[in-house]
Structures are given as C-alpha cells and as structure tokens.
Amino acid sequence: MEQTMVNNLTEGPIFGRMIRFMMPMMLANALQVGFNLVDMYFVGKYAGTDALSAVSIAGQITMLMFSLFLGVAVCGQIYVAQVVGAGRRGELNRVIGNVVFLSIVVGAFLMLIIPLGKPFLRLMNTPDEIMDSTYIYLVILSSINILVALYNGLSGVLRGMGDSKRPMLFVVVATIVNVVLDYEFICVKQWGVVGAAWATLIGQSSACFFALAYLYAKRDIFGFDFKLSSIRPDKKIMKILLDIGVPVAAKQLAINISMLFVNSQINGFGVLAVAVTGVSNKMIQLMTIVSQAMNDATASFVGQNIAAGKPDRVKRSVYDSVGFCMIFAVIICALFLTIPESIFSIFSKDPEVIAMAPQYLKICCVMVVSFALMSPMLGLINGVGNTMLNMLIAIADGVVGRIALSLFFGYFLGFGAIGFYLGHCLAGYISVIWGGGYFLSGRWSRVKTVA
User: Residue 318 to residues 38, 108, 137, 225, 296: CA-CA distances in angstroms?
Assistant: First the structure.
C-alpha cells in the first residue's frame, strides 16, 4: 500500500530511475505544446487571420506571466527536493504551505496588473484592428491567474518529491478539456478569440481543481494537511523560497524579453520572414519537450542527492542527462537535415516558405544541440540552489548574447532576417560554456544547500 508520494532518488541505478522519472514530464511537455498548437489551429482555421494574430500577441504576454509562475514552481521543487534528500520530511507541511501562499500572492498580483496592460499592447505595436480582441483575451485569462500559479506551485512540489506522474495527469486533464471546448466554442459557436480564451480558462481551471481535489484526498501521503493555519507565511521559509524563485523568474523574463526583441526585428523584414521563423520555432519545440523535462529531472535528482551528501550521484546524473539529450538531438538534427522541405510543408503550402527550409533548419540544428548540452547544466545549478548564477547566465545568454549576436549578424553583416535568427540560436552556447565550466570546476559541490 502506498504510504507516501515521496520518491527517493538518492538510491539505486541512476540512469534507469532518471528515465522513468523524466518520461511523464516529457509527455506533459508534449501535451503542453499540443495544448498551445490546438488553440492556434482552431483559431487560425475557423476564426481568421485577425483572431490568430490576437492570440499570437497575447501568447507573447502570457509567456512573460509564465516567468513568474515558473519561479514559484522551481523554488518549491528545489526546496522540497533538498528537504527530502536531507531526510527532513517532517518539514514538508510548512514548506508546501508557504509555496501555496506564494502561489496565491503571485497569481493575485497578475490578476490585478494584466487588465492594466493596454499601454503594453501599444508598446508591442499591436494593430488597432485587433487591439480590443487581444485585450479581451488577456483579461479573460488573467481572471484565473491564482489557479494557474497554484497549479504550477503544486506541480513543482511534486517534482521535488520525486513524483513526475501526477503533474502529467493534471496536464492531461487540461489538454482534453481544452481540445473539446476549442471545437465547441470556436468551430460550433463561432466565438472566435473569446471562445479560445474561455476554452483555455476552463481547461487550466479544470487542471488546478483536479489537482487540489486529488491532493486533498491523498493529503496523508502528500504531506500537506490543507489547513488555513498551514498556509500562514513563515519568515525563514519564505526568504529561502524568494531567494530561489526571484532569480528564476528574472532569468525567464530576461530570455523572453530578448526573444521579443529579436521577433520584433524579424517582423520588420516582412510576412515571409515571419512565416519561416514561425515554422522554425515550432520545430525547436520538439527539442524543448526533451530538454525541459531533463532540466527538471536533473534539478530534482541533484537537489535530493546534494542534500543527502552524495556528490558522485550528482555528477553521474548530469553526465547521463547530457548523453540522453544528445541522442534526441542527433535524431532531430538528422530529420532536419534530410527532409527539411517535407517538414516545412506540414505547416505551409507557400513554395517560398518551403524553399527556405534547408537553410533555416540547419540553423535550428545549432540551437537543438545547445539545448541538449545546456539543460542538464542549468538543472544542476537549480538543483544545488544556486539560482542567482542561473539568472546571471540567462542575462548573458538573453540580453547580451541574443540581442548582440542577432544585431551583429542581422544588421552589421547584412544577413537580414536569417542573421537575426542565427544570432538567436547561437546565444544558447553562452549558457553551455558557462554552465559546463561551472559543472567541470566542481564548485557546485561546495554550495551550501537551502535545506
């Protein structure tokens, strides 16, 4: 009979356990990518170009919101992983309670700030004809930001405990509900952008309510009693959570802002450039399904084992992560290099777009390899709790590397849109070099754990 949701990652074969732990997260990431693509498919096919543009611009802003949600999830994951690894499971109730409190605060803040976002939409050069629909989409989604933040926080806690299966189930619920309602609201009822917003809102709310109901029913083995008194913030615990989470959120913001800059420059080169880079970015998502899952898996493995005083298992887990990611990178790059036109033709029938597939997918290979190498290193840095270093790497990668390199290739060398995309893809190697150097130096083994 199951007595706890905690999965001890400090014992047993590393590679096999890591793969079993990572696979549900890969599936969850794939479903999340599918979740976004389904919205785009139904809106683009049944609601028209204006609606598709509105959802696309709104998606860029929701990515900025996700930076804060990710900060909550990662701080909960790292703290819980180290508490479990240190054998201090009695502290889980207080730690989880503080993660819940932080989730509610972050969600409430975003619920209040997003409805004030029209000036930001104007800053992004949102066309007047889709300004209202984009704004309505954002306002509808922002009404459940507390639920989205709470879902992400609880999922981070579970991953820290070594449980990757239950967060996957929550995403399954959201995806199924979203697909069904997208068809009903957009295709049948013809609600357009509003229909897409309501489908996403109900899908994400369903995932959160399912997670809360499930974990409440299993509260004895989850380790949290769901009492209001347990959600009261503890000054010491909250400081640790913020020390971890704020740099993570800042890191994600830096990367997203730099990507917004590159996209805005590419947009200036015309519709063809936008279409080609849009398809290329969809292809990159194939690798992020694997690399993000491995990042999270490495962070949980490292967090538990560093707190348990087992640096050899930490080192082995990073090497295994790199090896696994590289296998996928080689497979994806082989497809990009051998059948580029066939891949692009899935998303576009425009012969001009398809003709540019070989050139752009070669550049995509550059980014795919960087993701395979950087994700385990960044997972290591998160796992030991040194998120400030991760933030510095992200600033160097995003603000300095991506913007500087894209400007260099795009304008200085005169490569145009493809130069901006090349700079965007090369920027990741700053993270590879810095993160790899940190790992090989062994300095991570001397970091004081947050637990």
Answer: 34, 37, 41, 35, 12
> Of 139, 61, 75, 138, nearest to 105 (Cα)?
75
Cα–Cα distance, 150 to 106 (Å, whole number) = 9
Distance between start and end Cα atoms, the chain: 29
pLDDT, one tens digit for every residue, the chain (451 residues): 346 667 777 888 888 888 888 888 888 888 877 766 677 677 766 776 667 667 767 776 777 777 788 888 888 888 888 888 877 777 888 989 999 999 999 989 888 877 676 777 777 667 777 788 888 888 888 888 889 889 889 998 888 888 888 888 888 888 889 888 988 888 888 888 888 889 888 988 998 999 899 888 888 888 888 888 889 988 998 998 888 888 888 888 888 788 878 877 876 776 677 677 777 877 887 888 888 888 888 988 888 888 888 889 999 999 999 999 999 999 999 999 999 888 888 766 778 878 888 999 999 999 999 999 999 999 999 888 887 888 888 888 877 788 899 999 988 888 888 899 899 899 989 999 999 999 999 898 887 776 5
Spatial contact of 182 and 195, defined as CB atoms under 8 Å apart: yes
Give the residue among 292, 430, 277 at the shortest CA–CA distance from 363: 277
Measure the CA dihedral 271/276/277/280, to 10°: 160
> pTM for the complete prediction?
0.79
SS3 content of the chain, % helix, strand, coil (to 5): 85, 0, 15
Helices 14-46/165-182 angle, 10° precision: 10
The helix or strand, by DSSP H or E, that contains position 190, with its residue range, turns out to be none
- Encoded tokens for 404: 């500087």
